[in-house]
Amino acid sequence: MALRLRSALDMLENNNVGSLFQNYPMKINLRVWRQASAKERGDFANYTVENIQPDLSFLEVLDILNEQLIAEGGLPVEFDHDCREGICGSCGMMVNGQAHGSQQRTAVCQLYMRHFQEGDTVTLEPWRAKAFPVIKDLVVDRSALDRISAAGGYISVKTGAAPEANAVLVAKPNADKAFDYATCIGCGACVAACPNASASLFTAAKISHLALLEQGKPERQQRVVKMTQQMTAEGFGDCSNHGECQSVCPKGISINAIAQMRREYIRAKLPFG
Asked: CATH for 142-269?
């Protein structure tokens, strides 16, 4: 009963009143990209999944599809996932041409079937970027983001045991911005949505949140240089301020982070910086 009430309230909040009167369970058609590896050609395959309840997540529907495929002697669709709570950044795919789907500030694992209609055809593709080679089907190699972080996204200050909360003073505006930038989960949606396949929002979030905190000040200048250089070396494109990255970010990280990163870079490169 509680789940049905939650579904109804969610539909009302999203002005999706018509969904309240849908007949459940429903049928969904899936058009899924299948590709054995980065070196092989891929293509779309069509599947139908029936008996879908409104409170199933999209990944649960893929689980059902894979059970069907295995029962039929076929190969299951490979997709990446872990926490299924929208916080780990593992899951990620294009849903009807949009990174993570049409629900704003929602990772694909938190995309529920109550937002779809009976008989809908949903197209699923992997992230499309040179720096994200396809491993198989909907899974891509996002280790380039890890290498950007490893290039300088750390602090060397020896903190020892956890300090008292008020021992290091941080201005409230800086603390708020740093927290917002630190919520980046590294899913790669910003790269997938950007027409240039730029990783600027991801990199900027990592750089900016440390630059705003006192603990991040010692490596402030070398960090921005090393991380932006690594971003370029990985083959990501340049940022041209389209803003698509901001619109698809499941955590709603603002492109103000990119402006902050640019200021940090200029400051690091100027002789009096």
From this structure: 1.10.1060.10
Domain spans of the chain, in order of start = 2-125, 142-269
Based on the number of CB atoms within 10 Å of its own CB, is 119 exposed (0-12), middle (13-18) or buried (19 or more)? exposed
Residue 44 has pLDDT above 50, yes or no: yes
CA 249 – CA 201 distance, rounded (Å): 9
Nearest-10 crossing angle of helices 143-150, 200-211 = 30
pTM: 0.87
Question: How would residue 165 be classed by pLDDT, with cut points 50, 70 and 90?
Answer: low
Rounded to an integer, what distance in angstroms lies between the CA atom of residue 124 and that of residue 94? 6
Q: Using CB atoms within 10 Å of the CB of residue 241, give its burial: 0 to 12 exposed, 13 to 18 middle, 19+ buried.
A: exposed
Query: What superfamily does domain 2-125 belong to in CATH?
Result: Beta-grasp domain (3.10.20.30)
